[in-house]
TrEMBL record:
<dbReference type="InterPro" id="IPR005123">
    <property type="entry name" value="Oxoglu/Fe-dep_dioxygenase_dom"/>
</dbReference>
<feature type="domain" description="Fe2OG dioxygenase">
    <location>
        <begin position="175"/>
        <end position="278"/>
    </location>
</feature>
<dbReference type="InterPro" id="IPR026992">
    <property type="entry name" value="DIOX_N"/>
</dbReference>
<dbReference type="InterPro" id="IPR050231">
    <property type="entry name" value="Iron_ascorbate_oxido_reductase"/>
</dbReference>
<comment type="pathway">
    <text>Plant hormone biosynthesis; gibberellin biosynthesis.</text>
</comment>
<dbReference type="InterPro" id="IPR027443">
    <property type="entry name" value="IPNS-like_sf"/>
</dbReference>
<dbReference type="Pfam" id="PF14226">
    <property type="entry name" value="DIOX_N"/>
</dbReference>
<protein>
    <recommendedName>
        <fullName>gibberellin 2beta-dioxygenase</fullName>
        <ecNumber>1.14.11.13</ecNumber>
    </recommendedName>
</protein>
<keyword id="KW-0560">Oxidoreductase</keyword>
<comment type="similarity">
    <text>Belongs to the iron/ascorbate-dependent oxidoreductase family. GA2OX subfamily.</text>
</comment>
<comment type="function">
    <text>Catalyzes the 2-beta-hydroxylation of several biologically active gibberellins, leading to the homeostatic regulation of their endogenous level. Catabolism of gibberellins (GAs) plays a central role in plant development. Converts GA9/GA20 to GA51/GA29 and GA4/GA1 to GA34/GA8.</text>
</comment>
<keyword id="KW-0408">Iron</keyword>
<keyword id="KW-0223">Dioxygenase</keyword>
<keyword id="KW-0479">Metal-binding</keyword>
<dbReference type="GO" id="GO:0002238">
    <property type="term" value="P:response to molecule of fungal origin"/>
</dbReference>
<dbReference type="InterPro" id="IPR044861">
    <property type="entry name" value="IPNS-like_FE2OG_OXY"/>
</dbReference>
<dbReference type="GO" id="GO:0045543">
    <property type="term" value="F:gibberellin 2-beta-dioxygenase activity"/>
</dbReference>
Length: 331
């Protein structure tokens, strides 16, 4: 990344170092052991209260994680001119500082991939080893997707709805519109008590997002009172976000969590995120069984994932994207 002067860095957004919840009593990020029988109930509770949790005993082979991370680190270490051959990210490819099509910026560089992977665009960049990278992405994504489906099935069981694949089938569908992203947040020079925004606050539009990072801090989630809670990094665990589409499918029971990343002044952060989405034609509406078979009103007007995605790509990162689809309460 190019070194910038302090005023130039301000365009990425700065926050005071003490702007987060650190001293108020807080029980901590929900921790779910996927191998335990009570996982399904704890998952439901975490999705209702935070829309966010950490999982252990996830079954993802360490080798898949380290292989992909080391390929990603190699890629991000290339000269900018080489990396740019895989860009711009519109929507897939290499991106640097610009996030999305509507003027958002952050102290981040990234690769966005369609997990059905068309690596042709990357062939020139990855040179002799496109197959190696392709295999690393494939193994990692297949394994994380399986875990995401396991979590979604446990959630259906915990909610007492049938069939248990009611959510997971949307990711398993051969036309599932999922996205895979690797973010790199380089360290930045000291800004006298200020933190630089790496990835601005937002909610993820899809059903579920599964994140793994190296041991560098930066991720924060918004609590109900609007304060920011730093998420301690843990390279051996995965973090899961409820996305906007899941909030709608559950008629608002599960919360799509607002989150952001602050860049670290000392260490690089590398994160890999699988965003599990449904097929484009999928109707997104509360499940009838969660509307008490007609007793409860839907909070949202009906839409397809295609419509929501189109609308999301017209929005700015921090926008309340679901707001446009909420039904106005009758007076
Ligand atoms: C500003 C934007 C970037 C984003 C597309 C959008 O217009 C609004 C949603 C953003 C987001 C957030 C979660 C994921 O990182 C992402 C890939 C997604 O599906 O929605 C990004 C989009 C992006 O970076 O292109
Ligand atoms: O990089 C991270 O840790 C999170 C980034 C994120 O929220 C996203 O890419 O949607
Ligand atoms: Fe996100």
């Amino acid at each position: 990344m190019v070194v910038l002067s302090k005023p130039a860095m301000e365009q990425y957004g700065l926050v005071k170092n003490n702007s987060c919840k650190t001293n108020t009593f807080f029980p901590g990020i929900p921790l779910i052991d996927l191998s335990k029988p009570d996982a399904k109930h704890l998952l439901v509770k975490a999705c209702q209260e935070f829309g966010f949790f950490k999982v252990i005993n996830h079954g993802i082979p360490t080798e898949f994680i380290s292989r992909l991370e080391s390929e990603a680190v190699k890629f991000f270490s290339l000269p900018l001119s080489e990396k740019e051959k895989a860009g711009p990210a519109n929507p897939f490819g290499y991106g640097n500082k610009k996030i999305g099509p509507n003027g958002d910026v952050g102290w981040v560089e990234y690769i966005l991939l369609d997990p059905q992977f068309n690596f042709q665009k990357f062939e020139t960049v990855f040179g002799v080893t496109p197959e190696k990278i392709q295999a690393a992405v494939h193994d990692y994504v297949a394994s994380v997707k399986k875990m995401a489906c396991d979590i979604l099935e446990k959630l259906a069981e915990g909610l007492n709805i049938q069939p248990k694949n009611v959510f997971s089938k949307l990711l398993m569908h051969e036309q599932s519109d999922s996205v895979f992203r690797v973010n790199h947040y380089p360290p930045y020079p000291d800004l006298h008590g200020r933190n630089l925004i790496g990835f601005g606050e937002h909610t993820d539009p899809q059903i579920i997002s599964v994140l793994r990072s190296n041991n560098t801090s930066g991720l924060q989630i918004a609590l109900k009172d609007g304060s920011w809670l730093p998420v301690p990094p843990d390279q051996n665990s995965f973090f899961v976000n409820v996305g906007d589409s899941m909030q709608v499918l559950t008629n608002g029971r599960f919360k799509s969590v607002r989150h952001r990343v602050l860049a670290n002044s000392l260490k690089s952060r590398v994160s890999m995120i699988y965003f599990g989405g449904p097929p484009l034609s999928q109707k997104i509406a509360p499940l009838p069984s969660l509307l008490m078979n007609g007793e409860e009103d839907s909070l949202y007007r009906e839409f397809t994932w295609f419509e929501y995605k189109m609308s999301a790509y017209k929005s700015r990162l921090a926008d309340n994207r679901l707001g446009l689809f909420e039904k106005v309460a009758a007076s």
